């Protein structure tokens, strides 16, 4: 369960770390590609719209030019029938005009001649337009325009005119236009607007692009044809461009299937790379999770074994990375726990032995006294055994206090005087020469604890000395030297361990706690205690 949970979490983290930036980069790339394509298409559409506008403008300009030529050929005083015949001649074969009229400007405009394309005239008759009336002079329907109409006002002022909207008659879209004629007359025409759709068709890229010309009211005036069904045509981008006449606008639209084809291809490639990246990320996450989870499981098994009491269990992981360092630290901890357990067992064995010996001796002595087999000398032996027990208990209590954090009662003390008085307390017990030399500094220390150190060192020296013990005071240093067998170099640190004893002669009395207590007290003072040859060196 641990492996599955941790593997899932690590896999998810790997996916997020590796995949999320990749997705962000992919989406950003797609966005940049889409924006680039859109900008290019719109720039292209703008150029196409400008070109279409120029074609429409030229178409109207050509119409005005042709009307001006016709205006130069009409005669003001000529019979209307002759004028009509002349106009028919000028428009034969049918041209870009659906209708051409020659107007004179008096109190009201009057048509002097008019010609129409046959199909347009028929469509006009069938439509019965309200803005037209039959003119007996030309025997045709003519527009009901007043002098204030722009179609007359502009030519009267010498300006060519083109309407803002179409004048549709049946299936014939026409654009009213006019030009000035000699003698203040006006030539009007209905410009056939169907060719404009054909002009737009030339720019439609074979029906893959839609161009639409609209007037100010949004009515479609001309448009290119579709290659596909309009209902299935989806527009990707469009561009609206003013057509530079009458508020007209040109709209260029292109389908997404063609315009966004590069983007669709890029998306497919990105999705492919995303898929490959996801597979790689999942694979790497699984490998990484396995590499992390396996040692974690080994550590869990080792911890479980330690919990069951197998203190020899180790993870045996030898990797050099952080997990390997953790495993090595764990193994060191397990070794320390095993050593601590061994020390505990050894401690219990030592204490049991040291306590059992004087107790057994005292019990036997008391039994002899009770049975009358011994006298006062046995009671003295019992007293010695009890003193030994009390001393051992006191030493154990000292060890416990020190390890729990003993607080020192420091005060300014003459080290030389303190050492001399401490040595004097042991002089009655000395069976060898005991000398004190040198002088010490006055320093801050706990007099009782330093005295305990000195007494312990001198007492230990007296136990092993053959003929002399020398105590030397050097400022902040006390040196205790004996002429006993000494301590082998390999055991000079071990003697300061609890219950440690080095057999260098007859077995010494005591539990082996004195030197351990002395070193700990020295360290509490910020000093040190070491063995150099036959000398204990205390530095405070």
**Which strand order do you get reading across the main beta sheet?**
2-1-7-6-5
Q: Tell me the helix content.
A: 40-55%
CATH H-level superfamily of the domain at 407-539 = Histidine kinase-like ATPase, C-terminal domain
Largest sheet: 5 strands, antiparallel
Beta-strand fraction estimate: 15-25%
The CATH class of the domain at 407-539, by name, is Alpha Beta
Quantity of strands, as a count: 18
Task: Please state the CA-atom Rg, rounded to the nearest Å.
Answer: 60 Å
**What is the number of helical segments per DSSP (H or I, 4+ residues)?**
12
Q: Determine the N-to-C terminus distance.
A: 58 Å
The chain-level structural class is: alpha+beta
Shape: rod-shaped
Average pLDDT score: 80
Poorly predicted runs: none
CATH architectural grouping of the domain at 407-539: 2-Layer Sandwich
Please trace the helix and strand order, writing H or E for each element: HHEEHEEHEEEHEEEEHHHHEHEEHEEHEE
CATH topology grouping of the domain at 407-539: Heat Shock Protein 90
Summary tags:
Beta-Lactamase, alpha+beta, Heat Shock Protein 90, 5-stranded antiparallel β-sheet, 5-stranded mixed β-sheet, 540 residues, 12 helices
Notes on the protein architecture:
The chain has about 550 residues and is an alpha+beta fold. Among the domains are: about 75-190, Beta-Lactamase; about 340-405; about 405-540, 2-Layer Sandwich (Heat Shock Protein 90). About 50% of the residues lie in helices and about 20% in strands. The strands form 5 sheets. Strands 2-1-7-6-5 form a 5-stranded antiparallel beta sheet. A 5-stranded mixed beta sheet has the order 13-15-16-18-17. The two termini are about 60 Å apart.
């Amino acid at each position: 369960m641990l492996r599955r949970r941790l593997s899932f979490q690590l896999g998810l983290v790997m996916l997020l770390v590796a995949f999320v930036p990749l997705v962000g980069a992919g989406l950003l790339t797609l966005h940049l590609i889409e924006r680039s394509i859109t900008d290019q298409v719109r720039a292209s559409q703008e150029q196409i719209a400008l070109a279409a506008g120029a074609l429409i403008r030229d178409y109207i300009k050509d119409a005005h030019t042709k009307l001006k030529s016709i205006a130069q050929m009409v005669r003001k005083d000529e019979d209307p029938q002759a004028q009509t015949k002349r106009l028919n001649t000028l428009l034969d074969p049918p041209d870009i005009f659906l209708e051409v009229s020659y107007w004179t400007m008096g109190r009201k405009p009057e048509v002097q001649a008019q010609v129409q394309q046959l199909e347009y005239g028929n469509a006009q008759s069938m439509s019965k337009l309200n803005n037209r009336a039959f003119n007996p002079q030309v025997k045709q329907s003519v527009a009901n325009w007043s002098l204030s109409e722009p179609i007359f006002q502009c030519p009267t002022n010498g300006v060519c005119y083109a309407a803002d909207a179409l004048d549709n008659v049946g299936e014939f879209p026409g654009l009213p236009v006019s030009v000035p004629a000699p003698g203040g007359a006006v030539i009007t025409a209905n410009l056939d607007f169907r060719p404009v759709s054909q002009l737009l068709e030339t720019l439609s890229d074979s029906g893959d692009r839609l161009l639409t010309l609209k007037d100010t009211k949004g009515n479609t005036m001309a448009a290119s044809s579709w290659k596909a069904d309009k209902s299935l045509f989806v527009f990707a981008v469009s561009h609206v461009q003013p057509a530079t006449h009458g508020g007209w606008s040109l709209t260029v639209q292109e389908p997404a299937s063609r315009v966004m084809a590069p983007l669709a291809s890029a998306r497919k490639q990105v999705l492919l790379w995303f898929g490959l990246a996801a597979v790689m990320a999942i694979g790497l996450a699984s490998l990484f999770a396995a590499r992390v989870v396996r040692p974690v499981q080994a550590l869990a098994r080792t911890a479980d074994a330690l919990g069951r009491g197998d203190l020899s269990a180790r993870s045996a992981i030898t990797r050099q990375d952080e997990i390997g360092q953790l495993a090595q630290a764990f193994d060191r901890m397990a070794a320390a726990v095993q050593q601590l357990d061994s020390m505990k067992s050894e401690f219990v064995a030592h204490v049991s032995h040291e306590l059992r010996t004087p107790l057994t001796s005292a019990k036997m002595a008391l039994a002899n006294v009770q049975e009358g087999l011994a006298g006062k000398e046995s009671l003295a032996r019992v007293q010695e055994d009890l003193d030994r027990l009390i001393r051992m208990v006191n030493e154990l209590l000292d060890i416990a206090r020190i390890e729990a954090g003993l607080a020192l009662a420091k005060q300014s003390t003459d080290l030389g005087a303190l050492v001399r008085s401490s040595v004097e307390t042991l002089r009655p017990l000395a069976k060898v020469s005991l000398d004190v030399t040198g002088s010490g500094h006055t320093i801050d220390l706990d007099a009782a604890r330093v005295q305990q150190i000195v007494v312990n060192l001198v007492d230990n020296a007296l136990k092993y000395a053959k003929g002399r013990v020398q105590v030397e005071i050097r400022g902040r240093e006390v040196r205790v030297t004996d002429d006993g067998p000494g301590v082998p170099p390999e055991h000079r640190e071990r003697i300061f361990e609890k219950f440690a004893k080095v057999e260098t002669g007859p077995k010494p009395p005591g539990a082996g706690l004195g030197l351990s207590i002395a070193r700990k007290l020295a360290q509490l003072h910020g000093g040190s205690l070491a063995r150099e040859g036959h000398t204990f060196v205390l530095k405070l």
